[in-house]
Amino acid sequence: MKAPTNNIQEVLITMIEQGHVSIMDFPYLSGFRTRVSELVCEHGLAICSEQRQGINKFKRTFTYAVHSPLDMEEAINLYKKLTNE
Questions:
Q1: pLDDT tens, position by position, 28-47
Q2: What distance in Å separates the CA atoms of residue 30 and residue 26, rounded to the nearest whole number?
Q3: Cβ of 63: how many Cβ atoms within 10 Å?
């Protein structure tokens, strides 16, 4: 597959390669949740989201979502479409 050329492609290829994606994979990307929303709302990708908890450096818990595609083949086809492959 081609290398990603924008943030939405990068989020999607990470989801494909790892089987899931979360904000923990993209701490530098301020629009991470927007990119996931675009995959669902604009491109119709079916995603399952699961809540997980972490502990920060001050020993406080926080909650974040882990997103997984329901159909991996659909995710791969969407990536190919987005990269014009």
A1: 999 999 999 999 999 999 99
A2: 8
A3: 8
By the 8 A CB rule, do 81 and 73 touch?
Answer: no
- The model's pTM: 0.91
Q: DSSP state, 2?
A: P
Q: 22 pairs with which residues across the strands?
A: 66
Q: What is the pLDDT of residues 2-29, one digit of tens each?
A: 999 999 999 999 999 999 999 999 999 9
- Structural domains present in the chain: 7-82 (3.10.28)
Residue 46 has which token pair? 């079916």
**Residue 54 three-state SS:** strand
Q: What is the DSSP letter of 68?
A: E
